[in-house]
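Alpha-1,3-glucosyltransferase, pasting as requested.
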Amino acid sequence: EILVLLAVLHYVGSFPYTSRFASSRNAFALDANQASLSIVILAAVNAGLFITDHVHFQYNGMLLGLLLLSISCISNGQDLLGSFLFAVLVNMKHLYLSLAPAYFVYLLRHHCISPHPRCWRTGSNVSSVMMRFATLGVVVLSVFGVSLVPFYVAGGLPCLKQIFQRLFPFGRGLCHAYWAPNVWVAYNLVDKALLKVLGTRGNNVVSQGSMTGGLVGDQLHVWLPTVTPGLTILLSLLAMAPALVMVWSASRGPRSRLEFIHLIAYCSLASFLFGYHVHEKAVLNATLPMLLLAPLSQKHAEAYLFLCNVGHTQLLPLLFRQEEWALRMLVCLLHLSLSGSLLPIGKATGSSLTRAVSFLYQVGLYVLPEVLEILQPLILPHLPFLPLLFRSTYCLPGILISSYSILMLLRDETRSSQRRCD
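Structure tokens follow.
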């Protein structure tokens, strides 16, 4: 996580947003020094990274560090450097390609094309737009060239074709063996329920465990249409569309840099919800960018805390040994407690009913799946996948709510930009 901390330090050192916009934030907004300290501490003790990298032993920290460093550069106006880093990131882990629409739309609108004329004194003619676009394209394509041209020289097009087939193994199925809490959890659950109630249809015979056994292979639905990779890409783009339109329509200015971070967090959740063969750890692509925004206001802090509660608890089954149970719960609760003490949390907002439902739901994230994990071997030993299924299904509404909350925060930012220009 050294690269994550370096990226965070670069961000807080080069973009002191809280002091610049303090007058437009609520009374609970932190000053620049408090915000910087909060971001650095919470990045250093992030529960999601601790679970996935330090115990489950994966390597997400370096990739997420590159993502945050790219975001930081663009937030500081270094668009070409940020684009270069994102291209490097995609070549290191192609799954970050899902964020390409966010980068493309933002950079095309705010780097290449002339912004709102009332917000920028100098207009842009076609030649200057094309020049900036060409420069941006050269920066990005040069990274892909350095990465892929040696393979083409060594083996020609067949070699490149084999690489792309390995990078996008659509035969692995719609869902990962561990069902990440996205819309396909509900889709699979409905199809399983229909199969249980109505039985098979015609000659369509599918193994009862084909979606839950953890085996690699295509997952065919019986009563519902089988979901193709192309459909998941289309739905992901449609889910991103509202945020992309907001950012495209927004005026350029200091706030547009904050809009970009909102956009990345939202598009990460959109691809998480509708993507093909999504891994549960992909939620970190949204939680860490939201950390950069959390000190801005109480609404941002609440959105970050809620997303972390949902995102981190859905990672808990990665630590499945009994001796790890206390550790995984302690890590999440300590991160929650530390976040609540460092971030601008005042009196809870919303109606009393909304607050009560939200509180009970978040308590349930920690209690209900754990109780089921204890009881399932005793009362339902023939359903070993049930705890995972319940946890993913229970976390799904939380991911949906987080997506909506971030979209509304982005809407508020774009409106603030328009008012500033008007």
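Note for the archive: Residues 2-149+229-421 form one domain.
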